[in-house]
Design brief:
359 residues, Rossmann fold, 3 domains, six-stranded mixed β-sheet, 8 helices, 13 strands, 28% helix, binds guanosine-5'-diphosphate, binds magnesium ion
Length: 359
């Protein structure tokens, strides 16, 4: 049986379509080579250099991106253009060798065009409210809808009480406890696991992301715990995909990049995930209240009344501080760079002066 896979099955919904243009979705990125799904099936591709290099503003494709391609039936196809993204996860590149140093935030996009973010933490070890708050802010910022998935529910007696606790900080967000081992709770996620939808998995290594995907697929399609289960085709013939489509038509993105996300600009995401905290801001006596020691501070009195928890307020402040730092960091780096150049120049002047016996 020949299965024709259309790129539409991979969630491609064009708002416009150019004539004689093929579209594809990026399934995986390996340094300079890309695995893409085209109307002719899966194939490998590379960037058209005249488009992507030479000071071009074209965004480099990442896992989940929709791209325009020039399909080559023999050999490697060419990627011609990255289509605008409806959602994305990015991390900051402060390494300094990012080509566009003048941009305020130099971002490296690690996943794109997903509908939901499954924030995964395991109930036995990993559950960490502070990290969850950070993940929530990042997820709102991404443009997709966050869902909290608490894994390994079979390892605790009282998973419902954990769910209730997490619901207090994940305001307006679905919170589910699941077990990949027993299948508990997996069904409750079905409203998200729809044909054509893309889900990105966010969570530390070991929380059970691969096991979850295998439970959804009903077979071992992903490596659990570093042991490659599906090795029937051998390592070099099976391309490791970072975006996979299950038989149900739902797509899952699980990229290594997602495990190394640092903090980046989450200003909007912070407001979305801390609506409870920010709702007090307009109610203070002074409009420029810093919520420190000012009289008539609505935040402080909400904490005193027990309406708002002190931890929640602390998390908000520390994430905000971190966010401001990230926003300022690239400016700081530029400043440091200029300062270093100035120091080097003056050192050179001193050396020259010494040589000439002036100093
Ligand atoms: N008891 C239990 N163990 C699980 C569950 N899900 C995953 N694990 C175990 O947790 C470990 C890490 O799982 P894995 O899926 O590789 O996590 P990943 O790194 O997030 O992809 C493995 O030893 C799994 O067998 C679960 O629901 N219950
Ligand atoms: Mg894994």
């Amino acid at each position: 049986m020949v299965i024709t896979i259309n790129v539409k099955d991979y969630g491609f919904m064009p708002t416009y379509k150019k004539e004689n243009t093929q579209y594809a979705r990026v399934l995986a990125v390996h340094k300079e080579s890309y695995v893409i799904m085209t109307s002719f099936g899966e194939c490998s591709a590379k960037l058209k250099s005249s488009v992507y290099y030479n000071n071009s503003t074209e965004e480099f494709p990442t896992t989940g991106d929709f791209v325009e391609i020039q399909y080559e039936s023999q050999g490697v196809s060419l990627i011609l253009h990255t289509l605008p993204r409806k959602s994305k996860f990015a991390r900051n590149d402060f390494s300094g060798h990012a080509k566009n140093f003048t941009k305020t935030i130099i971002e490296q996009v690690v996943a794109a065009n997903f509908d939901y973010v499954f924030i995964m933490q395991s109930l036995n070890h990993d559950l960490n409210p502070r990290r969850l708050e950070r993940y929530l802010a990042q997820s709102w910022q991404s443009g997709a809808i966050p869902v909290v998935v608490l894994t390994k529910a079979d390892l605790v007696d009282n998973y419902a009480s954990y769910v209730a606790e997490v619901e207090k900080i994940a305001i307006g967000v679905g919170v589910f406890a699941i077990s990949a081992k027993t299948g508990l709770g997996i069904q409750s996620l079905s409203e998200y696991l729809k044909n054509g939808k893309t889900i990105v998995l966010l969570g530390s290594s070991g929380v059970g992301k691969s096991s979850f995907v295998n439970a959804l697929a009903g077979k071992e399609i992903m490596t659990v715990n570093g042991i490659r289960e599906d090795d029937s085709k051998g390592r070099h013939t099976t391309t490791h995909r970072q975006l996979i489509r299950l038989e149900s038509g739902v797509m899952i993105i699980d990229t290594p990049g997602m495990r190394e996300l640092g903090m980046w600009d989450v200003s909007e995401g912070l407001s979305e995930s801390f609506t409870d905290v920010e709702s007090y801001f307009g109610q203070c006596k002074f409009s420029d209240c810093k919520h420190q020691t000012e009289p008539g501070c609505a935040v402080k009195s909400a904490i005193e009344r027990g309406e708002l928890s002190a931890e929640r307020w602390e998390s908000y402040q520390s994430l905000k501080e971190e966010n401001d730092f990230v926003e300022n960091k690239s400016a700081y780096l530029r400043e440091k760079n200029t300062r270093n150049i100035a120091i080097k120049m003056s050192q050179r002047q001193i050396k020259k002066g010494k040589k000439r016996g002036l100093l």
